[in-house]
## 1
Amino acid sequence: MRTLNEDAWYAGEQLFVVADGMGGHRCGDVASTLTIDTVRSLDREDVSEDEVRQVVRRANAAVLGHSAENPEVAGLGTTLCGAIRRRDDWLVFNVGDSRCYLLTSGSLRQVTVDHSEVQEMVDRGLISRDEARVHPDRNVITRAIGQVPPPEVDIVTLPAGHGGTLLVCSDGLPSEVSDADIAGLCSGDPPLDRLAEELVAAAEAAGGHDNITVVLVTDVTDAPALRPERARTTLPRDLVIREVAQ
């Protein structure tokens, strides 16, 4: 329904990331693009958690710098969510309410935790997850790239070679499509290009009130199932499949 796409994304060799800009015309799309341009430097397998934090701070400074130089767009910001395929694991990071899910053996699990007012209400038991999807404050986030002080970035590691699919998306998908329906679309292991298109189409059919970006990346491997400890399986780079849809 929106005339301006404020989402930006990058799918490289090791890095898969989505940013959902905020601020409207001449604001949100600039913030998300500046952020993606900054975090592209993380497209390597030897990235450390500290480096992710440093790059997020640089992205925050870039957005704040643009706002200072262009007072007419003051207040711009963006979410950020991504996954990096390192040698022994996946490093997943997020700021805001863009999400990363893990799909394994037909089961969908949200890896990241939203930084939003409704998530805080869910955590306190005030509302359910279903109620959060339609709550009037569902678009109010508590962390963003472009804030003072710089936001803390959440970081989660997943073992490499788990054979699952990572789904990184802007909130335009889960705000329109429930986790159960996302899992249903993912069942049967459809080709990633078709799945990406079907997920976006489902969000559009449900209303499409926000920009929708989906990045899918799969470890194609017969490695053991996901374990809580860090795995030591190294997956050849050419066995990583990636698909993007908007």
## 2
Amino acid sequence: MALAGPQKTAAQLVGVVFVMGALAWASVPFYSWFCKVTGFGGETSVSDTGSDVILDETIKIRFDASIDRGFPWEFKPVEREMELRIGETGLAFYEATNTSDRPIAGTATYNVAPFEAGGFFTKIDCFCFTEQVLQPGESVLMPVTFYVDPEITTDRDAKFVHRITLSYTFYETDMPEDYAALNSDVTKDTDIN
């Protein structure tokens, strides 16, 4: 049975709305996957181990830090810049201090500039992989272990990169459930005594 006139148009419109909704729903995970695979938008790679190849050629890594507006932490790199051989494992530290009078959880987002270098900047371990909780007035040093993949020297666009900037921004997040449960148990014990 073939649809005629207005029924066919209505069916086509429903189909278009369905397809557009499906594309909108899939766009965020697809974009995230695309950025991780290509390094687009400064997305970095992740590895369990360092590079097997270390070149004599060096590259400068600059470290940048910022916080979300109203977020009561101080956050800065311990060292602003380092130079290392391409493929060599680097270790950098960022310092964070909770300047408020309450425990605060934070999560860091990151990117690499220029964007062409994103797929070649590889993190082995990073404080940005997990949520951080700081007590009032607490300061911590947070490490990031990384290397620049030697394949950067053969990439059509990235081979001209001689300086990479690694940027982090901290945002406040909800307290982890296990942390909130632990604190409520401590409060109950204090109230009983």
## 3
Amino acid sequence: MRLLPREEKFFHYFVEQARLIAQASQVLRQAAEKGPSALREAEVAIARLEQKGDEIIHEIFTRLNQTFITPLDPEDIHSLGSHMDDVLDGIEDSVHRLVAYKIDPIPQAMIEVCRVIEGCALMLEKAFEALNAEKPLLDHCIEINRLEDTADHIVRAAIADLFDKEKDPFSLIKQKEIYEFLEMTTDYCEDVADALQNVIVKNG
């Protein structure tokens, strides 16, 4: 059963937003792998994607306010939009700190978390495409939950290693904050997955 009628644009906007998230996560991961020299250009590219995402979220909320009867609960549409906005913001915040704090070289654990973020983003893209095509999407949500747990383990180990080996307190503080922003971004992805699962339960 199609949860939103074809004349509505909500699914179209959600898929667009998911694709922007996937693009931003790819830019972040590629820049992290290439090193500090690639991060400033990545920061600019991600800021542009985040701005496009803001425009999409604004359109979703505007359309939501103008639609008298919505096939999905309005709070579910709002929740999905808000959580997706958080993901893009998290990616932008992370790359901004990598640039501002002049992290060089990029620790391998940070690169690994960036890869996890990209994995989460690709699952989000597949989940919203599946929703739009009336196909099952629960497996994608479960994979996001698994990836978020992976990120937790990487970040906890990396921060413990920082406190054990890093002698410069300023470097420790900067790296710890970046790890926390990266990990928070995977939490935001999980929030979207949880909101999607809530939609499935309500409309299954």
## 4
Amino acid sequence: MVVFKYIFWILYRIWFYILVAIPIILLFPVLIIVISKEKWYPQFFKLARFWATFILLGMGFRPIICREQKTNPKESYMFIANHTSMADIMLMLYAVKNPFVFVGKQELAKIPLFGFFYKRTCILVDRSDAKSRQAVFKSAQKRLKQGLSVCIFPEGGVPDEHVILDEFKDGAFRLAINHQIPIVPLVFPDNKKRFSFSFFSGGPGVMRVKQNEFLSTQNLEIKDSPELRERARTIILNELQNFNKNKKPLGT
């Protein structure tokens, strides 16, 4: 029985990368066109959402979304969430309809095929380089002026398996205050169980998303970012603990 589990997990991981590649290969000419001009990014975003949906459903995941507050398609936001899985990117794209740009680590640009589009459509950051972190603010400012939103996983990486939620970095909150955009905290309680970064783990099933009430940045200053950061972290941590403790269904 244990042997069959390991065989399943190996095939399941391979299947994931196949699903990642198939839409990119089939849509490659169209993708090349829509990334050639920044003003066409909303069209690329629609294709990215199709790609994400294809992967999630193909892996046997069933996303269920509960929204305490809905976004306005004409406004920009800062989307944040806990980060435990390679599927977090796909689930964020599936759950959020407002076109947004990911701020992500440079290392992902090295992934074959995926990395080609990742580095041309996302804002890359080397967290060990102060100049790189500063450049993120300029790139994000440009995107926000184009009417887009921004998505950051504020833990700055994937925490150890035993950590429910790591400490948050300041970047997302400073950026949101700078541009006076609301922060939208999302919670992904099932992604670690469904498809964690541990190779021999995971399986099909429900993937819940809880979109919490927005945190306003109106009248806040940069000096307020630590307090705002901790408010956001407390919201997400409490939700995760409730989900884990009570097996909390969405909408309650």
